[in-house]
Amino acid sequence: MSRPEIRVSRLHKSFGDNHVLRGIDLEIGQGEVVCVIGPSGSGKSTLLRCVNLLEGPTEGQVFVGGIELTDPDVDIDAARRRIGMVFQQFNLFPHLTVTENLTLPQRRVLRRGKAEAAKVAARNLERVGLAEKADAYPASLSGGQQQRVAIARALAMGPEVMLFDEPTSALDPELVGDVLAVMRMLADEGMTMMVVTHEMTFAREVADRVVFMDGGVIVEDGTPERVIGAPRHERTRHFLSRLL
Ligand code: ADP
Ligand code: MG
């Protein structure tokens, strides 16, 4: 593997007595796409949220692009700018147009000027196929379009890695494909991606590796052919059998 873009080492996370992450070790190389699968409550979202320190780990280390985010002296805001995150809920501002949703964080967080922010917004709306919706309000868009706007908003910040937490789980089935197509494009462009998903076709076709989590540990980590096609552990087989 090239220099790991994301490295998680002996990561633990507890909420009170609930020991959710129980020693996670994971490396994701530059340009690698890793899908994280596993049953509800296994700690997938918590892991993703620890990678950009939305949750502070109880123990262990997180590195992104060679910078240790868990170092108490790190400039966490600067470090987090390298990481784009897309959630199941799109979290767009309803009172702002699509373009304004993309320019606001660029201006506030990156201190970009108005013209430059607008240019970057337009370019990224084009990338997700929504240039014609620049002046629309989120409520007038389908869920799939809103999620593509949320992806464009994250991309407009120029992230080095993208984290996706079940980006298509809230969508009507007919809208899932367009969002996955955008994610596939990003993967093809060489973006480093960590994707929590139940979309096994996407995982098989796009992921370089699939990680199966259960009970706060990584049970299996390998190519999609290996983990989905020939799982070694009973827990993985059981999980996959319920999806199909
Ligand atoms: P998954 O995404 O795999 O469904 P989560 O990471 O969301 O799992 O949750 C794993 C466990 O952590 C669950 O028991 C959940 O209740 C708990 N948990 C997650 N976030 C919090 C939080 N902010 N406060 C307390 N408990 C939490
Ligand atoms: Mg989750």
UniProtKB/TrEMBL annotation:
Gene Ontology molecular function: any one: ATP binding
PROSITE patterns: ABC_TRANSPORTER_1, ABC_TRANSPORTER_2
Subcellular location: Cell membrane
Keyword ATP-binding: yes
This protein's UniProt keywords: Amino-acid transport, ATP-binding, Cell membrane, Membrane, Nucleotide-binding, Transport
Source domain of life: Bacteria
InterPro entries, alphabetized: AAA+_ATPase, ABC_ATPase_HisP-typ, ABC_transporter-like_ATP-bd, ABC_transporter-like_CS, MetN_ABC_transporter-like, P-loop_NTPase
Alphabetized Gene3D superfamilies for the sequence: P-loop containing nucleotide triphosphate hydrolases
Sequence ranges assigned to domain ABC transporter in this UniProt record: 6-240
Membrane topology: Peripheral membrane protein
UniProt record similarity statement: Belongs to the ABC transporter superfamily.
Name of the molecule in the record: Amino acid ABC transporter ATP-binding protein
